[in-house]
Amino acid sequence: MKVTRQQLTNAASANIISAQQADDLYQFLQTQDQHSARFSFTHVLYYLGGLVAIGAMTLFMNLGWETFGGAGIVFISLFYAAVGLLFSHRFAAKNLIIPAGICATFVVSLTPLAIYGLQQWLGVWPDDSVYRDYHRYIQWHWLYMELGTLAVGCAIAWKYKYPFLMMPIAVTLWYMSMDIAAMLTGGDYDWELRKLVSMYSGLLMIGLAFWVDIRSRHSADYAFWVYIFGVMAFWGGLSLQHSDSELSKFLYFCINLLMIFTGVLIVRRVLVVFGAIGSCIYLGHLASTIFRDSWLFPISLTAIGLGIIYLGVLWQKHERDITTRAQRFLPRPLRELLASRN
User: Is the pTM of this model over 0.85?
Assistant: First the structure.
């Protein structure tokens, strides 16, 4: 819960705390929160500049760099990486954690380019594809670039411990799930297998994100990006599955409801958002197919919606008692994680 200056002023007006205490507490909270990403103009400039620099070396890379040859690409990438680490150290020395983390992330994002250049230099690049295709197409031979990026990303994240460093790691894991499917199919477009690989690899990423969440519960949010791409891979693979069985479709609805409940429990909005979209897709299926000509379906759905609202009223009324009793049965690390989110 974010505490504003106005809320503290209101607390002082209600004689809960003094005006001096309200001011001191606000200054303390500002100090504690200065390194957390938030929607301020300063942080927008930080991330906008960082994403432009990262995008220039990844998504927006053009064919002009091919003229440097493999060796040239390697040495230029190493020079850029050195500059990125230099800026990261200087920002960290000035206690500017957000830009320091962005610069370190820029270094990790250079890794696929450097490995591509190295393969070109050594003459082991397998076809006529170029680096800019890495972010556009699915190919099995991108795996070398992805494994190298994971190794460098994990090493830098372990040393510097900036939460934003998890972003390229999460993106790389997402890319790997698609490229592994291409490797297993020999490059053929076997979409059934690809959907299954995406679903199960996404589920593994969600499990990894939860493990990271537990381990980092007393520090920064390192699991944010892993949750996002894990949920995208899992939910995308799940939603693209085809079945003519109404039972399977209902199970899909139940899985999405479970995602919503889990997202609310551990305060992860990405689970709630995708779960809500999946639930709406199932309800749309019922409205357009099963109950297409039934006048009772909209009435029943309205009653269910109002019932859910009433359930929310009851939950708000008894939330503390229910939560306290339920958390007695949870492991201590999970209780501490939930307590840090409330």
Answer: no
C-alpha distances (whole Å) from 207 to each of 23, 144, 162, 169 are: 42, 24, 21, 15
pLDDT of residue 39 exceeding 60, the answer is no
Buried b (16+ CB within 10 A) or exposed e, 160-181: bebbbbbbbbbbbbbbbbbbbb
pLDDT confidence of 105, banded at 50, 70, 90? very high
- Angle (nearest 5°) at CA 243 between 237 and 248: 85
Mean pLDDT of 137-148: 88
pLDDT > 90: percent of the chain: 29
Three-state SS string over the chain comes to CCCCHHHHHHHHHCCCCCHHHHHHHHHHHHHHHCCCCCCCHHHHHHHHHHHHHHHHCCCCCCHHHHHHHHHHHHHHHHHHHHHHHHHHHHHHHCCCHHHHHHHHHHHHHCHHHHHHHHHHHHCCCCCCCCHHHHHCCCCHHHHHHHHHHHHHHHHHHHHHCCHHHHHHHHHHHHHHHHHHHHHHCCCCCCHHHHHHHHHHHHHHHHHHHHHHHHHCCCCCCCCHHHHHHHHHHHHHHHHCCCCCCHHHHHHHHHHHHHHHHHHHHHCCHHHHHHHHHHHHHHHHHHHHHHCCCCCHHHHHHHHHHHHHHHHHHHHHHHHHHHHHHHHCCCCHHHHHHHHHHC
Measured between alpha carbons, how far is 80 from 74 in angstroms, rounded to an integer? 10
pLDDT of residue 84: 92
User: Are 87 and 103 within 8 A, CB to CB?
Assistant: yes
What local confidence, expressed as pLDDT, does residue 34 receive? 54
Domain boundaries, the chain: 1-33, 38-242
Question: Residue 90: what pLDDT?
Answer: 93
The pLDDT of residue 338 is above 60: yes
Instruction: Tell me the C-alpha distance between 197 and 193, whole Å.
Output: 6
Query: How many Å apart are CA 27 and CA 21, to the nearest integer?
Result: 10
